[in-house]
Design brief:
Radius of gyration: 20 Å
CATH architecture of the largest domain: Alpha-Beta Barrel
Oligomer: single chain
CATH topology of the largest domain: N-terminal domain of MutM-like DNA repair proteins
Strand order of the largest sheet: 1-6-7-5
Bound molecules: zinc ion
Structural class: alpha+beta
CATH class of the largest domain: Alpha Beta
Order of helices and strands: HEHEEEEEEEHEHHEHHEE
Helix content: 25-40%
Distance between the termini: 28 Å
Length: 264
């Protein structure tokens, strides 16, 4: 499922591929992913507009147009962006695509149709309406500690809660906890300031390194959990065995040796 690093990589790519270009045509063959807008009105709003900027908050991508409207994309479980030559056929499972004035096209591809495409005239209002928390990449250590104080529940549930920190999902929460050597079920209220600072530092490292690696698991450092994310794999740090358990209703991977259940 695309999480903050994936969407940040899409933002950087859209910056390279499409920002500065003018939209010639919008194809929206899959109305199921459109929210609060029809394919016709989307075409009316976007045709002829210049893409001026791309902005990300959590797992949402906002593309700013010279009409002061913003196209909003969420990638659901499997969505991604893919460039293609407009003279060629669109990639399979293209739900939505933009044709630009330089002859290039960008497809929004979502084999499982759980993503979202919509319009807003104000991303900040959109973020507030969805009650999204602070972007997990943008915040500083003081704010991180402040947000964690007085919260109940497990550290993994908190990391994944989009209303507190926007952008982290199952995979990158596991990665951060692995780096911080914390068990996913550790109670947030049991973490002192030092442990929270350690968690914050792990968050920074994991997000920065994974974005630099284009959020591609094959390009992650070997001491990341991601390349070893399967039961009975070998932990690259201690040669222990990676195992899985249910935390916050999701299958979590961890090294019980590096992340004992009383870890702080
Ligand atoms: Zn280990």
């Amino acid at each position: 499922m695309p999480e903050l690093p994936d969407v940040e990589v899409y933002r950087q790519r859209i910056d390279r591929w499409a920002v500065g270009g003018r939209i010639q045509h919008v194809h929206a063959p899959e109305p199921e992913i459109l929210e609060g807008v029809s394919a016709q009105s989307l075409g009316r709003e976007l045709d002829g507009c210049r893409l001026q900027r791309a902005r990300r908050h959590g797992k949402f991508l906002f593309l700013g147009l010279d009409s002061d409207q913003w196209l909003v994309l969420h990638f659901g479980m499997t969505g991604r962006l893919e460039p293609f030559d407009c003279a060629q056929e669109a990639p399979a499972h293209t739900d939505f695509s933009l044709e630009l004035d330089d002859g290039s096209c960008v497809a929004y591809v979502a084999p499982r149709k759980l993503g979202l495409v919509t319009l807003t005239d104000n991303p900040d209002d959109f973020i507030a309406k969805r009650e999204l928390g602070v972007d997990a990449l943008g915040l500083d250590q003081d704010r991180f500690l402040e947000l964690a104080k007085g919260r109940r529940g497990s550290v993994k549930c908190w990391l994944m809660n989009q209303q507190s920190l926007a952008g982290l999902g199952n995979v990158y929460s596991d990665e951060i906890l692995y780096r911080a050597r914390m068990h996913p079920k550790t109670k947030l209220s049991d973490l002192n300031d030092e442990a929270l600072r350690k968690l914050f530092a792990a968050r920074s490292e994991v997000l920065e390194i994974s974005i630099k690696a284009d959020a591609d698991p094959r390009r992650m450092p070997d001491d990341f959990l991601l390349p070893h994310r399967e039961a009975d794999a070998t932990c690259p740090r201690c040669d222990g065995t990676i195992s899985r358990l249910k935390a916050c209703g999701r299958t979590s991977y961890l090294c019980p040796n590096c992340q004992p259940s009383n870890s702080q």
